[in-house]
Amino acid sequence: MSSSIDPSDEDDNSSQVIQQQESTIANSSIDPASEDINGEIHYPPMGFGKHKPKMLLMGLKRSGKSSISSVVFRKMAPQDTLFLEATTTIHKESMQSFMDFQIWDMPGQIDYLDGSFDVDSIFTGVGGIVWVIDAQDNYMEPIGRVTDTILQLTELYPEIKYSVFIHKTDSLTEDYREDTIRDIMQKTSDELFDNGLENPPVSFHATSIYDHSIFEAFSKVIQGLVPQLPTYEALLNTVAATCRFQKVYIIDVMSKVYIASDSSPADTDAYELCCDYVNAIMDLSDMYGWDRKQQQAPDARTRDICAHTAESMVSSVRNHTLYLREINAFLALIGVSTEPKFQQEKTMVDFNVQTFQDTMIRVLDRS
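The structure assignment produced for this chain is given below.
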């Protein structure tokens, strides 16, 4: 089937994209991105007011906090984390990515709620706390610590969201792994319920730095810090329907965490393909890319190329087609399709995704 589409005579699918996305913008009170005197669009970071939200990594000593931070946010190879030293002081790291936020790696041997610390200076402005439990070790003590932390902080800082990473599960046998995860979840929930928290704001994730589970878990954590998440999901649902994507993500290309996806069921295999795809694209970009904003293009053709956002498509990857479109310097849309005629319909997909990209640029300007 031919896929030659003229924007002035788009089909019903394209019209649906435009109408739904414009409706979403109208209901969201979003301002357009700013332009300089040369007409160049500047993409501001996601807004959280004037402060950077904080995310704390907590847990007992040697539970794997520093390894997680290094693998996800510093692109360290998992095997190299064996040489990391134990954290002895609070390690603060600012992440300037799709949004500005801080990650605090907290030493596990210190109790920050014992009265000798300024609790406000540590927990004010915290959007989320990730408590790492080593599934290979005795987990009764960390369960007690995490429940005490939640119980003491819930009244003082009700806006904080809590995530428990049941970590290092990759080396456990399948049966023992499931039993361990279930036991930690049950004991933690029971302890909180017995102390009066019937519906505590806690999520549980089984993680390992040696597979994609750590990126998927952090994706869920980061999404809790994104106030525009419902808007993103609504837009992605429209894109998935009109472009016939099996699954579609907005991925932070530096960390490979996805800040949003469509509402179809989670697909671990599809996400793994997307992560590997981003790795390949970033490796090629490191070798052949250039700074399009700072480097003056020598001719008109090159300037025209630089004016367009990057895109890529690869087919026949485990019977999937992967489609990537750059949104800005930090984010990319990646769609996964199993449609056999996807390549023939790429012109329509390009038009719909371009409409989505224009909408996303306006969404990202919200403060």
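Interim note for the steering committee: The chain has a mean pLDDT of 80. DSSP finds ten helices and 13 strands in the chain.
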